[in-house]
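USER: If only I could read C-alpha cells as easily as an amino acid sequence. It would mean a lot if you studied the pair and described how this chain folds. Here is the record:
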Amino acid sequence: MSAEKRVLQGEVEPYWVMGGVIDVKLDAEKTGGAFTLLEISNPPGGGVPPHVHERDDETVVLVEGTANALIDGASEPMSPGDVVFIPRGVVHAFEAGDAGARAIAITSPGGSESMLRDGAPAKAGEEPPPEMGEAEIGAMMAAAAGAGLNFLPPEE
C-alpha cells in the first residue's frame, strides 16, 4: 500500500441509508484492511436503529449538529467534537437532533462498507428515495448481516 493514496471529494462513494447519506471516504481496500472511514449525514430525527457490529469496533466523531447516542442501554447526548467508542458486540444506535447531524465514523478492521454497496447510490442535490419497503429492508438486513452488522428488532 502506497503512503501517497488520497481520496478526493469526487472519488467518494455516497449511499442513501435510512434517509441519510453515508459517504465511503476510505474503504478496507484503500487501507489494507486496517479500517473504513465514513462520513454520515442525517436529517433531523434521522439515524441508525439499534444494531451490533460483530466484526469491528466503531469510533464516531460528531462534526455538526447534535445527536443522541444510545450505547449499551445508556443515552449519551453528543455535541460537535464529542467522540464515542463502541467496541464490537455492544448494542448501539444514533439519532440526529433537531438540526440534523454530520459525523465521521471509523470501523476497525475495515470491511463494514460492503453492506452499503448493495444500497442506493446518492448524487449531490438529489432528494432521498422514498421510505424503504419490506423488500428493501430485507435486502439491507441481509447485506448488513453479511458485513457482520446485526440490527435488533424494534421494541414493541
User: Anything to note?
Assistant: The radius of gyration is 15 Å.
